[in-house]
Design goal:
mainly beta, 3-stranded antiparallel sheet, two-stranded parallel ribbon, 2 helices, FAD/NAD(P)-binding domain
Length: 77
């Protein structure tokens, strides 16, 4: 989405995730076998998503009418 809207600064992105990393799971076996370091299959979200606000939380519900996301510990617009 960042690439699709790269020229439109009016678009804002927010990603809600319980973790701060993207894990490439097909390579987990190689990490378990010590063929790869864990850092080779994990990418920090904040360093790869430049225009996206990353919120570490769990989604508890979505209010489409009011355009709000309810998180397990708070509510976000």
């Amino acid at each position: 989405l960042e690439k699709e809207f790269r020229d439109d600064s009016s678009v804002a992105f927010t990603l809600v995730s319980e973790t701060n990393a993207l894990l490439f799971t097909p390579m987990l076996a190689e990490v378990a076998a010590s063929s790869l370091e864990p850092t080779h299959i994990s990418t920090p979200l904040r360093s790869s998503l430049h225009r996206t606000r990353v919120v570490r939380a769990q989604v508890a519900g979505i209010d489409l009418e009011n355009r709000r996301v309810k998180l397990s510990d708070r509510e976000e617009p």
